[in-house]
Amino acid sequence: MSKIESYRLWYEHEKDCNQKMLAMLGSVPEAKRKDARFSQAVTLAAHLAACRENWLDRMIAGGKTQVDWWPKKVELGSLAGRYAKMEAKWTDYLAGLGEDGLDVDFEFPLSGGGGYRWSIEGQIVQLVGHAFYHRGQISLLVSQLGGETEDTDYLFWAFGRQPERWKKLG
Q1: Which pTM value belongs to this model?
Q2: Which residues does the record give as a divalent metal cation binding sites (predicted)?
Q3: Binning pLDDT at 50, 70 and 90, where does residue 167 land?
Q4: Most exposed residue of 12, 16, 34, 85, measured as fewest CB within 10 angstroms of its CB?
């Protein structure tokens, strides 16, 4: 499997995790949704979407249409549509990205002036790890609020896709 095929596969896993994350947030009892931890969990989910949106914008358009990295007062109901739109854009982007497109640098400005240069592959890997980190935080908050959590480990997702490779030995 090539690197780009691996990154596409990882993104399929991430999309599955996003749906599980949204379901976890939706499982928090109504009585607990006024708790600051629920707001924090929803804000983290919105932040994950913003990261994917902003970095794709930086990678393909020079960062011209950035959204708020840490939006305030996010409504849970706004996230499903946002994720669907963002995931479609990323799926299309990765489908069109070839192996030779990974070792390419891109530049982007900062709002306060100046800018940076970074690599496409480096940012793809960063986003995967960043999502694991924040989904873990969200899962913990959901659990504390009495919601239902779901395992988003790659292992279980991969075995579900290839059950013939999951074998108990001994």
Answers
A1: 0.94
A2: 47, 130, 134
A3: confident
A4: 34
Residue 38's Cβ-count burial label (10 Å; 0-12, 13-18, 19+) is buried
Examine residue 54 and state whether it is found in any structural domain, yes or no. yes
Asked if the structure places residue 170 within a domain, the reply is: no
Counted domains in the chain: 1
Is 13 known to sit in a ligand binding site?
Answer: no
Domain presence at residue 112: yes
Enclosing domain of residue 114? 3-165
